[in-house]
């Protein structure tokens, strides 16, 4: 069977990564061919992830390794959006980050001071953190009760891994919300408008010229539609 | 002013501890005198705590030190109730306990096998745990996704300490619920019916002969009223 040729083309194609382009270390069926075809037609391809435990350089290297050479600039994840979000709103903020080393490094590289003394914290950043310990919960509790703001990179319940999953940022956010009785103010990852803004800023295109493709209705498709893009759901992922 | 003499007496007086009888290492005003007077009138006095990080022996020693000699048997906390709850329902259960050493010791002493291999876990017990680390969240996640039951000792948001608070079991429960999308099945501490049952079993009295006194409407007073006891609110605590 010949693959169907679409009757409509967009200027830019935005892809979720995990569960849409690849799963673990393997491209999903037809994902590579689709992206390569679109590029050969001079369409722009960019990639999104909610996962802040890798940098855009890590994702670029992975796509390149899987046969889809991609520059880091064509990748946006929730830590990139968090840096942008904080730069615009709280450029001088001292941050207490519940997150892994790559997120901490990106925030520090953007000029934010990272602190862990509750009284000094302007904002608590909750994220996917496999190095989470009670002491971090205590600092977040003390800081938020003393007036610190409370933001999160993403709200995924768990991160799929071969054979199971790893508790993701939703668990960290819920723990802090439960003990402080304070709701997170903003989650910048999908399906937030801040993530959509970051993509459209990168593409410099009106949303109706873009197609968002992902494997989760409540994040990928929701965000695309909210932002005025076309959206497509793959049935390959979560 | 003379203290008022009550016009009604009960057979038994049940007191919450933290914020009702004492705060930190000091008795609250009139608490000691009230309890001593009731005892001199041959009324039964028993004590309750949701906090599973101390044993009933610890609480008895503390009350005795503060001038209110009390045997361990007259104290019920959420770990005592958890032991009873599990003995009746899941006597052979292998448990993964997210809790501190005293809770683990009480469950082990009651004959339960404590395990931390997710595939072996029959029930996850969530509790107040200042030794909480991500690995425990991962084990709870894997165990519950594989079918383990999910119970908690108490659902307090934070434990008041001088000058602030410590994130309590509500944070642990919320983290597990958020990543597993599974609600805790039972929380045995106040205001649960299991805690009320444990007290009435200890007292061997009908509920309307008992007065429950505490500093929290949503735990102490709620539990007393639900169980058919009279209930009084002190304004000394949380």
Describe the fold and architecture:
- Two copies of one chain form a homodimer.
- With 238 residues, chain A is of the alpha/beta class.
- Chain A contains eight helices and 14 strands.
- In chain A, the strands form four sheets. Chain A has a five-stranded parallel beta sheet with strand order 5-4-1-13-14, sandwiched between helices.
- At the A-B interface, helix 5, strand 11 and helix 6 of A face helix 5, strand 11 and helix 6 of B.
What's a quick, concise take on this entry?
2 copies of one chain form a homodimer. Chain A has 238 residues and is α/β, with parallel strands linked by helices.
Distance between the first and last residues' Cα of chain A: 27 Å
Computed Rg of chain A: 18 Å
Q: Reading side by side through the largest sheet of chain A, how are the strands ordered? A: 5-4-1-13-14
Largest sheet of chain A: 5 strands, parallel
Specify the structural class of chain A: alpha/beta
CATH class of the largest domain in chain A: Alpha Beta
Q: Please state the second-level CATH architecture of the largest domain in chain A.
A: 3-Layer(aba) Sandwich
The share of residues in extended strands of chain A comes to 15-25%
Biggest chain contact: A-B, 30 and 30 residues
Secondary structure elements and their pairing?
Two copies of one chain form a homodimer.
Chain A: E1 12-16, E2 22-23, E3 26-27, H1 31-40, E4 44-49, H2 56-65, E5 75-77, H3 78-89, E6 94-98, H4 101-109, E7 113-114, E8 123-126, H5 134-145, E9 149-152, E10 158-161, E11 164-167, H6 169-180, E12 186-187, H7 193-203, E13 210-214, H8 217-226, E14 230-233
Parallel strand pairs in A: 1-4, 1-13, 4-5, 6-7, 6-8, 8-9, 9-12, 13-14
Antiparallel strand pairs in A: 2-3, 10-11
Helix pairs in contact in A: 5-6
């Amino acid at each position: 069977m010949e693959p169907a040729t679409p009757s409509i083309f967009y200027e830019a194609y935005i892809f979720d990564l995990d569960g849409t382009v690849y799963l673990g270390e393997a491209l999903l069926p037809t994902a590579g061919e689709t992206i390569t075809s679109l590029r050969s037609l001079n369409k722009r391809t960019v990639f999104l992830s909610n996962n802040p435990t890798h940098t855009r350089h890590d994702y670029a290297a992975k796509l390149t390794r899987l046969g889809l050479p991609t520059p880091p600039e064509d990748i946006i994840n929730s830590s990139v959006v968090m840096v942008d979000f904080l730069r615009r709103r709280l450029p001088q903020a001292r941050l207490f980050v519940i997150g892994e080393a790559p997120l901490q490094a990106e925030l520090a590289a953007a000029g934010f001071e990272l602190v862990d003394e509750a009284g000094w914290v302007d904002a608590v950043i909750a994220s996917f953190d496999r190095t989470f310990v009670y002491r971090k919960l205590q600092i977040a509790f003390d800081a938020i009760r003393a007036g610190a703001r409370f933001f999160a990179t993403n709200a995924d319940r768990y991160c799929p891994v071969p054979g199971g999953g790893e508790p993701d940022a939703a668990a960290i956010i819920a723990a802090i919300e439960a003990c402080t009785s304070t709701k997170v103010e903003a989650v910048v990852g999908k399906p937030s408008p801040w993530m959509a803004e970051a993509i459209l800023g990168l593409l410099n295109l009106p949303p109706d010229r873009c197609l968002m493709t992902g494997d989760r209705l409540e994040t990928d498709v929701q965000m695309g539609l909210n932002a005025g893009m076309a959206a497509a759901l793959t049935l390959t992922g979560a």
